[in-house]
Write a structure and sequence with these properties.
The complex is a heterotrimer of chains A (241), B (356) and C (289).
Chain A lengths: L4 E10 L2 E11 L4 E5 L6 H9 L6 E6 L2 E2 L5 H6 L2 E3 L12 H9 L6 H14 L15 H14 L4 E5 L7 H18 L2 E5 L3 H7 L2 E6 L2 E6 L1 H6 L1 H8 L5
Chain B lengths: L1 H5 L4 H20 L2 H26 L7 H19 L3 H25 L4 H20 L10 E2 L17 H23 L2 H11 L1 H6 L4 H27 L1 E2 L1 H4 L2 H14 L6 H23 L4 H16 L5 H7 L32
Antiparallel strand pairs in B: 1-2
Helix pairs in contact in B: 3-7, 3-10, 3-12, 3-13, 4-5, 4-6, 4-10, 5-10, 8-10, 12-13, 13-14
Chain C lengths: L2 H32 L6 H19 L3 H23 L8 H23 L14 E4 L2 E4 H23 L1 H11 L1 H6 L4 H26 L7 H15 L4 H21 L5 H15 L10
Antiparallel strand pairs in C: 1-2
Helix pairs in contact in C: 1-5, 1-8, 1-9, 1-10, 2-3, 2-4, 2-8, 2-9, 3-8, 5-6, 5-8, 6-8, 9-10, 9-11, 10-11
Classes of the chains: A alpha/beta (241), B mainly alpha (356), C mainly alpha (289).
């Protein structure tokens, strides 16, 4: 059976710097995978290629049988990819509710329906009591949740989360992990996350892919990867063992 | 549709608007000829200001070339009238078409080549100047000697040919201003309005949630330019003469945006408020300083007033009035005064909340 | 048209282009570092011209002698402008900065009107009507002196940015604001200084221009536009680009005046501007930000 997401040999150069080099992996539908590695390993660049912000210099990206390679970001969103940004980009002039409603407008032309869906989605992430505020009036963790809610509102098939746990306290991290598990269980949403917070990676992902210097150096279950000597050497350090 | 228009506006706001409208309808009865011309001008700027506000306040595109769209509309309708005897009631459609095409060209070129922020503003100036020089050298439309319409001193209203007393033009502009206001209100609460605001705030994030930003930005430019084109027709038949160096002047574009900036970019009522305040103020200042006899004194104070607004209250005066009159029902969205996603050459100090 | 006339016109264009380049340097420096577009560019140059006019009328001497003083005065004006006014809108959207500069421009023009009246004013220098004859070429002396002055000032500026510590600090700010802050540069003061330098360029250009043309209050906007065309073609933020752009525009305007109708020659510049904005907005020598 064809995999839900197939990333085949993608590469990206930036003026002589090989940011990503021949990376391949596959995801089955409904899975939660993590992409980890040291800074500069090419994780966000990989995301950007899947989401269409850049097009790969080589390789293909296929989602549910649809070849997304090199397509425009908004068309890729229509094809079912939702994403968050590493440094959050909320719509500052809009309320929290409207931020998410804009996302829902991808699949409905009716504002009322979009707003209702936005409130539902915000409730899922525990933000509905803040819906009349603007992003600058909510905390950073809330802004990260807003970013997730907005991406979820587009009804994606694949959700790309870029370091959404950064800067959260352990209890907040656990809460986010539980939320994602719940969404994944209820809706079967496929999730690929970039994370440095190992606590979240271990708790959430079924499979982990490790990048270093743009190349895939290891892949496997969280437990396997954490013990992999190459991964320990370049990223985790002895204390992780 | 009524719901989208009225939405969550509270009763106070609606009563205030109704009162204002009643006052505006009644005004000509109490105004002498001179005051009436000032009012006509005020409504003209309220109307064009809203068109400009649509591009910047809603979609985030700074244009300093609005005079080009107005001018093209003016020449289109006037040209049809002078050369072919086509009455402006029909000619206005050509005005709209020509202005929209110009908007589409500017927009297409700008967005296809990813021009935004200050560069886009410069592009609009360049196109505007280019058009001015072109028309200046086009004898068919009068060139630099000007295009003249026969002035007829009719006391009665001829809407077909747009011949009539200033009152007629006043009410036409009033209808147009109200129409654009309602249109903006309607569209802000629609998908296109939301998408515009998303693009204005952060184009990259907008794309990530499925917005075809190119297409929606073109919509903004074309709609705005079409609205400006209609203003051009009115302009041509009100003044009855067109000179490229006045019609397409950059100062004309600047005049059209002043009211909106003073009132409040991105607000619904700001452009109208700003124009209604600024135009009579400007005229009063001209009259007051004319008696002093020193040329330039009006512009001097004018420059200081605008500078003061920008420095002290960049969000415009309307939000203050709005709060002061306690008209707020639903919380008003803050206007996009802060550096947004379309800025070019931003200093690297991040707006990122996370810090370095 | 006879060949030597053509050549004369072209050389005139080239020389004028050098002065255009000098004035555009100011615009380019300001945008490259402070990231502000100085829409009051032309009006400030006109101010420099009026200042030079007053000095020449009051104390005599050649305008080019007054150049250093005028440049210093404009420097101070620019410094104060940036430090106390423009800085306050730096965090706001672009149209706010544009409006502030446009408002300043309007105020300046109004001030000139009030003080000097609307008529053309000029000064006469001893060499106004003289020219150098090199073979078949006849070149105005005033143009030559003006061009020499422009080149001298430009060279000074290059040396400043290349070799002095202050110049390097300013370039650092322009390259990397955050980095500059982190290494302890007083960016606010450097920005003000940079604007001052840009204004000083305008001061120098204005003093030089007075030798060549008459001044009147409404002269500003066309020079602002011209400077934009030059700087965008050459590359916003690139000093050699501004000079190159100046020469190119001076030259091509002269050429266009010969080949096509003179009244269309600015249309040519705008068409070029549009092309450059679309195809290579960083200009010929600029860097893509």
């Amino acid at each position: 059976m064809a995999p839900f997401l197939a990333v085949q040999g993608i590469s990206k150069n930036f003026r002589g710097l090989r940011a990503v080099s021949d990376v391949s992996f596959e995801m089955p539908k409904g899975a939660i995978y993590a992409l980890i590695g040291p800074n500069g390993a090419g994780k966000t660049t990989t995301f950007n290629m899947i989401a269409g912000a850049f097009s790969p210099d080589a390789g293909r990206i296929v989602l549910d049988g649809d070849d997304l390679t090199g397509r425009r970001p908004d068309l890729i969103c229509h094809a079912g990819v939702g994403r968050t940004f590493q440094v959050v980009k909320p719509f500052r002039g809009l309320t929290v509710e409207d931020n998410v409603a804009v996302g829902a407008l991808r699949w409905t032309g009716d504002i009322e329906e979009a707003r209702a869906y936005a409130i539902e989605t915000l409730a899922l992430l525990g933000l509905d009591d803040k819906r009349a505020l603007t992003p600058e009036h909510v905390t950073l963790p809330d802004r990260k949740r807003l970013e997730v809610a907005r991406a979820l509102a587009t009804r994606p098939k694949l959700l790309l989360l870029d370091e959404v746990m950064a800067g959260l306290r352990p209890t907040e991290t656990d809460r986010m992990v539980a939320t994602f598990k719940e969404i994944n269980a209820k809706t079967g949403l496929t999730i690929l996350l970039i994370e440095h917070v190992m606590r979240a990676v271990m708790a959430l992902s079924q499979h982990v892919i490790v990048l270093n210097h743009g190349e895939k150096i290891a892949a496997g279950t969280p437990q396997e990867v954490v013990r992999d000597p190459a991964v320990v050497e370049c990223y985790l350090g002895e204390a992780a063992l | 549709m009524i719901r989208r228009l009225v939405g969550q506006a509270n009763a106070r706001t609606l009563w205030a608007l109704a009162a204002l409208l009643a006052a505006l309808i009644a005004a000509p009865a109490f105004a002498n000829d001179y005051v009436l011309t000032v009012l006509v001008l005020a409504l003209y700027y309220a109307y064009t200001g809203q068109a400009w506000n649509l591009m910047l306040g809603f979609a985030g595109l700074l244009s300093i070339g609005q005079a080009m769209f107005v001018g093209l509309g003016a020449y289109a309708a006037a040209g049809l009238f002078v050369q072919f005897g086509v009455p402006p009631i029909a000619g206005v459609f050509l005005s709209i078409v020509v202005a929209c095409i110009a908007g589409a060209i500017v927009g297409y070129l700008a967005f296809r080549f990813a021009i935004g922020g200050v560069y886009f503003a410069l592009l609009t100036i360049a196109f505007s100047e280019f058009t001015r020089i072109l028309i200046d050298n086009w004898a068919y439309l009068g060139g630099s000697r000007g295009l003249f319409l026969k002035v007829s001193d009719l006391r009665h209203w001829d809407l077909i040919n747009l011949r009539g007393p200033p009152q007629m033009f006043y009410y036409i502009l009033l209808v147009l201003t109200v129409a654009v206001f309602l249109f903006c209100r309607y569209i802000l609460n629609s998908k296109i309005g939301y998408y515009w605001q998303a693009i204005r705030e952060d184009e990259e994030a907008a794309q990530a949630i499925g917005i075809d930003t190119f297409r929606y930005k073109i919509y903004a430019v074309v709609i705005s330019s079409g609205i400006s084109g209609i203003a051009g027709t009115i302009y041509a038949f009100y003044y009855n003469n067109l000179f490229p160096e006045t019609v397409f002047a950059i100062s004309g574009s600047v005049d059209m945006l002043l009211g909106t900036v003073v009132g409040g970019v991105g607000t619904l009522f700001g452009p109208i408020f700003g124009a209604l305040i600024l135009t009579p103020l400007g005229e009063a200042l001209t009259a007051a300083t004319a008696s002093v006899g020193i040329p330039g004194i009006k512009q001097f104070f004018w420059g200081l007033v605008v500078a003061a607004i920008v420095l002290v209250q960049p969000a415009g005066l309307w939000p203050l009035v709005y709060r002061g009159l306690r008209l707020g029902g639903r919380r008003m969205r803050p206007p996009p005064v802060l550096r947004g996603g379309n800025a070019v050459g931003q200093p690297a100090v991040g707006r990122e909340e996370e810090g370095v | 048209m006879p060949l030597d006339t053509v050549v004369n016109i072209l050389i005139g264009g080239l020389l004028t282009g050098l002065i255009y380049g000098l004035s555009s340097l100011g615009l380019s420096v300001i945008f490259g570092v402070v990231k502000i577009v100085n829409f009051a560019h032309g009006e400030m140059m006109v101010g420099a011209m009026f200042l030079t006019l007053v000095l020449v009328r009051w104390a005599g001497f050649d305008p080019l002698m007054w150049l250093p003083l005028v440049a210093i005065v404009l420097f101070g004006f620019g410094y104060v402008l940036q430090r106390y006014l423009i800085e306050r809108v730096a965090h706001l959207a672009d149209y706010m900065q544009f409006l502030l500069m446009a408002a300043i421009a309007t105020t300046l023009v109004a001030a000139y009107l009030m003080i000097f009246g609307p008529d053309d004013q000029s000064i006469q220098v001893s060499y106004s009507l003289d020219s150098y004859a090199i073979g078949p070429l006849i070149i105005d002396k005033s143009r030559v002196y003006a061009a020499i002055a422009a080149v001298a000032v430009t060279a000074l500026l290059f040396l400043f940015f290349r070799y002095t510590l202050l110049g390097k600090a300013i370039r650092a700010c322009g390259d990397n604001y955050m980095g500059a802050l982190v290494v302890g540069l007083n960016v606010r003061r450097l920005y003000a200084f940079t604007f001052g330098i840009g204004a000083a360029c305008l001061g120098a250009a204005g003093a030089i221009m007075l030798v060549l043309i008459d001044v009147q209050p409404y002269l500003g906007p066309q020079y602002t536009l011209l400077a934009f065309v030059i700087v965008i073609i050459g590359g916003l933020g690139s000093l050699p680009g501004a000079m190159l752009g100046g020469i190119l525009i001076g030259f091509s305007e002269a050429l266009a005046g010969i080949v096509i109708q003179p009244s269309l020659k600015s249309a040519f510049s705008f068409a070029l501007l549009i092309l450059v904005l679309l195809l290579r907005p960083q200009g010929l020598l600029g860097r893509r930000t």
